[in-house]
Target: Peptidase inhibitor family I36
Amino acid sequence: MALRKLTASVFAVLALIAATAIGLTGPATAATSAAGNGQGRFAAQAKQAGLTGAEAKQLQTSVDGYLATQGGTQVAANKIALPGKGEIVVALPGERQARDLTGAKTARACPYENFCMYTGTNYSGTQFNLWRCQTYDLSNWNYPGSWINNQTPGTRARFLDRNYNTIYTTPGAYSYSSYYNWAPVWHVIPC
Model:
């Protein structure tokens, strides 16, 4: 009897291996691949930050939206690395300013040698920290926000329209604007 159970178990394992090898189990879903890439850690991070389950889901939806439009890799519950280019720090639901989920309750400063853009006025909302000199495309920035130019002294950023025409050039670094209408801006070159 024990040998029969063992033989049945071995055949079940071999059948599973064969099905996987020939593709009968289907492709990995986004949920399974996401779970393997840190979603559990991000959920724990959101919970530790005091977010409810609904707020954590709302935050992940925002992060997913930025990942879809800007690319990059999610490296924390509210942070996206743009390899070689910068980072996006998404404001938590119910909070005015973006912050890292490392225990700090204060708003993030614009790092030196970065051009920082904010989705809200007075340096609020989601924060984009850009440091590479290249063209960044904006998606759905149809509202007032703000920016800080904390690059090397004298460096200017340019805002471009949909046809890549310059519509505004910032003063040299260090400079800032607590209110800027992003609606006509389709692209930003931080240098």
Residues 2-22 form the longest helix (21 residues). DSSP finds four helices and eleven strands in the chain. Residues 21 and 36 are 20 Å apart (CA to CA). The chain has one domain: 34-189.
